[in-house]
Design a protein that fits this description.
single chain; 116 residues; mainly beta; Umud Fragment, subunit A; 7-stranded antiparallel beta sheet
């Protein structure tokens, strides 16, 4: 890696990958401390899906957000908590690394997409 490239984005590997949610940006859908299962890849992502992604302006940070719309070859993401704006409004487009399919701890259940 050249010094001007910055850190490489985290990679998700496996069929289902556990990811821990931190922060309040996805409340009430997901809460700080929730553990979710992520299906790696972005081929099946549609607007309204909850995804794991990396903002291009913050390549060191893996985030859980809701996919709002395609933005060129990336995605525009938003958190479900309207009081928190640490999403594409602050950081621009993101590269999706996977789709959240379920919360497995502490309140097991499917994570549903919202279609607008």
């Amino acid at each position: 890696m050249r010094p001007d490239e910055g850190p490489a984005p985290p990679r998700l590997r496996g069929f289902l990958v556990p990811v821990l949610v931190t922060g309040p940006s996805m409340a009430p859908t997901l809460r700080h401390g929730d553990a979710v299962l992520v299906r790696p890849g972005d081929r099946r992502v549609r607007p309204g899906d909850v995804v794991v992604a990396v903002f291009r302006s913050r390549p060191d940070l893996l985030v859980v957000k809701r996919a709002e719309r395609r933005d060129g070859d990336g995605w525009w993401l938003r958190g479900d908590n309207q009081l928190v704006t640490d999403d594409s409004r602050a950081y621009g487009p993101a590269d999706v690394h996977g789709r959240v399919v379920a919360r497995w701890w502490p309140r097991p259940g499917l994570v549903r997409a919202t279609r607008g």
